[in-house]
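User: Okay, second chain of the day. Same drill as before: sequence in, structure tokens out.
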Amino acid sequence: MACTRATRTIATRWRSSSSRRSFWSAFGSQGRVAPGGRSTTYVERTQPEGARSGPGDLDLVAYSLRKWVRLALSGNPTVLLLLFSPPESLLVCTERGAALRALAPAIVSRKAGPRFLGYMRAQTDRLIGTRGQRNVNRPELIEAHGFDTKYAMHVARLGLQGIELLSTGRLMLPMAEPDRSRVMAIRRGDVPLGEALPEIDAIELRLHEAVENSPLRTEPDYERVDAFLIESYRESGGWN
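Assistant: Same drill. Structure tokens below.
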């Protein structure tokens, strides 16, 4: 294990009712192995796939180093978050894990822009039901507010973090004010859907502008990342 993160910062891969966590492993983990050749994904869930997690349930996804890096280089929004977790939120961080986190400037590039835009547009369409089935995984929120406020919060959060990443090459976790307070207001249902949707559209336009004007490199530094991967696997296999 290279690093393990355990703070609640509004976006994650490891979920339970008591805490929201992100987890990744450079050299593997125990659990069910999803097919994927030598780039492995490990999955461990209390509930069946597709079922909603409840109080105390485990929802864990861990990637091999090779797959995690491939996703990060392509600009996967969820994976990239883990490069910017505050040091005090890490339960464990090995020397190799710290070296990977230090690679953030080589990993992050303008390639992330289309990924953030694509994810945001798809989630907006799911929110309002114009693409596929409307997200109805939280019927209690729909009953209380008329729409899934948590899903809407994540749509806005995704766009705002995309703007920050494309503009600065980094992400502040937890989100900085006033953005954090605004997305949490959406989450609480303080912002009606008729106000939230135009706001989400405006964020998407700002994200388009951030992609067009980003100062980031066009492509990741593949040579530097490849060197890290080779060194990591050689070290793990005792070949150095």
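Residues 6-37 have pLDDT under 50 and may be disordered.

User: Thanks, on to the next one.
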